[in-house]
Structures are given as structure tokens and as C-alpha cells.
Design a protein that fits this description.
It contains two helices and six strands. It is of the alpha+beta class and about 100 residues long. The radius of gyration is 13 Å and the shape is globular.
Length: about 100
């Protein structure tokens, strides 16, 4: 599927956890289309999208950056670009997964 790489602002419209092979991941719906969190990791890793782009969401009081989102939700959300790595978190085991 094609993704518009020039997007700099994405509105999160849905957040839910999904079970996959005994692991719990976060699935987010975006205003520009529905992407699994791994898809967003691939976009950021490709360098086509600035990892510091701003999110806005109805469940947040104000727009925040990726790292701020990580701070807000801790290991319950896999948005983080520190060191250029995009980490996925297993909510149950609190283990880190590097998006490939």
C-alpha cells in the first residue's frame, strides 16, 4: 500500500491492544489511514518522515512529540526514536522488540 511520506502531522483516531502470537501490541488508527505500529516504525526508519513530527489526538490534551508520547504512556506504547531505533513493547512482559 502506498503511504504519503510528506505527512508531518497525523491524528490518532483509535488505539487498542491486539494479541499476536502470544504477544500484546498496540494498534493505532490514523486520520490518514490505518497503520499497524510496525508500519509506522518502517516509515520513520526509512528516513522519509521526521521522527519528531507532531501527533495530535482527542485523548491527549495537547499535541505532543514522539518522545513525549513515550513519556506519557511509558512502556504501554511503542513510540520512541531515541538512538534511531523504534521500539515495540510487549505490554504483558514489559519486553522490548525492535521493529524490523
Amino acid at each position: 500500500k502506498e503511504i504519503q511520506m510528506q505527512i508531518r502531522k497525523i491524528t490518532i483516531t483509535m488505539v487498542k491492544t491486539v494479541e499476536y502470537e502470544d504477544q500484546t501490541f498496540l494498534l493505532m488508527g490514523f486520520s490518514k489511514g490505518n497503520f499497524c505500529i510496525e508500519d509506522l516504525a518502517n516509515i520513520i526508519d526509512s528516513g522519509k518522515l521526521n521522527p519528531d513530527f507532531i501527533y495530535s489526538s482527542s485523548f491527549l490534551t495537547s499535541p505532543v512529540s514522539c518522545m513525549e508520547l513515550l513519556d506519557v504512556f511509558g512502556s504501554r506504547i511503542g513510540i520512541g526514536t531515541e538512538g534511531g531505533e523504534f521500539l515495540l513493547y510487549d505490554f504483558l512482559k514489559r519486553e522490548e522488540y525492535l521493529a524490523q
